[in-house]
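Hi everyone,

Forwarding the result from last night's run.
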Amino acid sequence: MSTPESSAGTAFVIKQNASIESIVDRALAALLSDGVSVPSATGKAVTIQGAGSVTTKAITIVEIIKRRLDEAKLKWWQYNELDGVEPPKTEADEIMEQGRLSGLSLEKKTEHKKPRLTMTISTTSLDGRGKASQSSTA
Protein backbone atom coordinates (compact mmCIF):
# COMPACT_ATOMS: atom_id res chain seq x y z
CA MET A 1 0.00 0.00 0.00
CA SER A 2 1.32 3.44 -0.82
CA THR A 3 0.16 6.82 0.40
CA PRO A 4 1.02 9.53 -2.14
CA GLU A 5 -0.27 13.02 -1.52
CA SER A 6 -3.03 14.08 -3.89
CA SER A 7 -4.60 17.45 -4.58
CA ALA A 8 -7.65 16.36 -2.57
CA GLY A 9 -5.59 15.27 0.47
CA THR A 10 -4.04 11.96 1.40
CA ALA A 11 -4.35 9.04 -1.02
CA PHE A 12 -4.16 5.33 -0.22
CA VAL A 13 -3.60 2.79 -3.01
CA ILE A 14 -4.84 -0.50 -1.59
CA LYS A 15 -2.74 -3.63 -2.11
CA GLN A 16 -3.69 -7.28 -1.51
CA ASN A 17 -1.84 -7.56 1.83
CA ALA A 18 -2.93 -4.17 3.20
CA SER A 19 -4.38 -4.07 6.72
CA ILE A 20 -7.95 -2.72 6.71
CA GLU A 21 -7.71 -1.52 10.32
CA SER A 22 -4.41 0.29 9.72
CA ILE A 23 -5.68 2.12 6.63
CA VAL A 24 -8.96 3.10 8.35
CA ASP A 25 -7.02 4.51 11.33
CA ARG A 26 -4.59 6.42 9.10
CA ALA A 27 -7.38 7.76 6.88
CA LEU A 28 -9.41 8.96 9.88
CA ALA A 29 -6.30 10.61 11.33
CA ALA A 30 -5.81 12.43 8.01
CA LEU A 31 -9.47 13.49 7.90
CA LEU A 32 -9.62 14.78 11.47
CA SER A 33 -7.57 17.84 12.28
CA ASP A 34 -6.50 17.01 15.81
CA GLY A 35 -7.37 13.33 16.17
CA VAL A 36 -10.24 14.16 18.51
CA SER A 37 -13.09 13.72 16.05
CA VAL A 38 -13.13 17.38 15.05
CA PRO A 39 -12.83 18.18 11.35
CA SER A 40 -10.73 21.17 10.37
CA ALA A 41 -12.46 24.38 9.34
CA THR A 42 -11.33 24.04 5.73
CA GLY A 43 -12.19 20.35 5.52
CA LYS A 44 -9.95 17.52 4.50
CA ALA A 45 -10.22 14.61 2.12
CA VAL A 46 -8.77 11.14 1.72
CA THR A 47 -8.74 9.11 -1.45
CA ILE A 48 -8.94 5.31 -1.37
CA GLN A 49 -8.13 3.46 -4.60
CA GLY A 50 -8.42 -0.22 -5.39
CA ALA A 51 -7.98 -2.05 -8.69
CA GLY A 52 -8.98 -5.56 -9.69
CA SER A 53 -9.36 -8.04 -6.85
CA VAL A 54 -8.70 -5.47 -4.10
CA THR A 55 -11.60 -3.23 -5.13
CA THR A 56 -13.84 -4.91 -2.56
CA LYS A 57 -11.24 -4.28 0.18
CA ALA A 58 -11.18 -0.59 -0.79
CA ILE A 59 -15.00 -0.43 -0.58
CA THR A 60 -14.92 -2.06 2.88
CA ILE A 61 -12.40 0.53 4.08
CA VAL A 62 -14.53 3.43 2.82
CA GLU A 63 -17.69 2.00 4.40
CA ILE A 64 -15.94 1.67 7.79
CA ILE A 65 -14.64 5.25 7.54
CA LYS A 66 -18.15 6.53 6.75
CA ARG A 67 -19.66 4.55 9.66
CA ARG A 68 -17.08 5.96 12.09
CA LEU A 69 -17.72 9.51 10.86
CA ASP A 70 -21.49 8.94 11.29
CA GLU A 71 -20.95 7.59 14.82
CA ALA A 72 -19.04 10.80 15.62
CA LYS A 73 -21.95 12.81 14.12
CA LEU A 74 -19.66 14.32 11.47
CA LYS A 75 -20.73 15.26 7.96
CA TRP A 76 -19.02 13.63 4.99
CA TRP A 77 -19.22 13.64 1.21
CA GLN A 78 -18.20 10.76 -1.05
CA TYR A 79 -17.05 11.08 -4.67
CA ASN A 80 -16.50 7.97 -6.83
CA GLU A 81 -14.65 7.46 -10.08
CA LEU A 82 -14.56 4.18 -11.99
CA ASP A 83 -12.04 3.59 -14.74
CA GLY A 84 -9.68 0.86 -15.86
CA VAL A 85 -5.99 0.17 -15.90
CA GLU A 86 -4.13 -1.70 -18.59
CA PRO A 87 -2.63 -5.01 -17.49
CA PRO A 88 1.18 -4.85 -17.40
CA LYS A 89 2.98 -5.96 -20.58
CA THR A 90 4.73 -9.29 -20.39
CA GLU A 91 7.72 -10.60 -22.30
CA ALA A 92 5.32 -12.65 -24.45
CA ASP A 93 3.48 -9.43 -25.38
CA GLU A 94 6.77 -7.89 -26.53
CA ILE A 95 7.58 -10.96 -28.65
CA MET A 96 4.10 -10.85 -30.23
CA GLU A 97 4.51 -7.14 -31.00
CA GLN A 98 7.92 -7.73 -32.62
CA GLY A 99 6.40 -10.53 -34.73
CA ARG A 100 3.61 -8.27 -35.97
CA LEU A 101 6.11 -5.54 -36.83
CA SER A 102 8.09 -8.09 -38.90
CA GLY A 103 5.00 -8.90 -40.93
CA LEU A 104 4.13 -12.20 -39.23
CA SER A 105 0.47 -12.96 -38.70
CA LEU A 106 0.24 -13.58 -34.97
CA GLU A 107 -2.96 -13.60 -32.95
CA LYS A 108 -2.95 -12.02 -29.55
CA LYS A 109 -5.30 -12.93 -26.76
CA THR A 110 -7.52 -9.96 -25.94
CA GLU A 111 -6.59 -8.44 -22.59
CA HIS A 112 -9.23 -6.49 -20.73
CA LYS A 113 -8.58 -3.55 -18.48
CA LYS A 114 -8.76 -4.16 -14.74
CA PRO A 115 -11.46 -2.03 -13.11
CA ARG A 116 -10.12 0.66 -10.79
CA LEU A 117 -12.36 2.38 -8.27
CA THR A 118 -11.24 5.65 -6.73
CA MET A 119 -13.33 6.92 -3.80
CA THR A 120 -12.77 10.26 -2.11
CA ILE A 121 -14.25 10.97 1.33
CA SER A 122 -14.27 14.61 2.39
CA THR A 123 -15.44 16.53 5.45
CA THR A 124 -16.59 19.37 3.16
CA SER A 125 -18.18 19.49 -0.27
CA LEU A 126 -15.58 19.48 -3.03
CA ASP A 127 -16.92 21.83 -5.70
CA GLY A 128 -16.42 20.74 -9.29
CA ARG A 129 -16.06 17.03 -8.48
CA GLY A 130 -19.52 16.09 -9.71
CA LYS A 131 -22.38 14.51 -7.81
CA ALA A 132 -21.57 13.26 -4.31
CA SER A 133 -23.16 10.88 -1.87
CA GLN A 134 -23.73 12.69 1.37
CA SER A 135 -23.91 11.64 5.02
CA SER A 136 -27.32 11.31 6.62
CA THR A 137 -26.23 13.83 9.29
CA ALA A 138 -25.81 16.55 6.66
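Residues 75 and 91 are 49 Å apart (CA to CA).

Cheers,
N.
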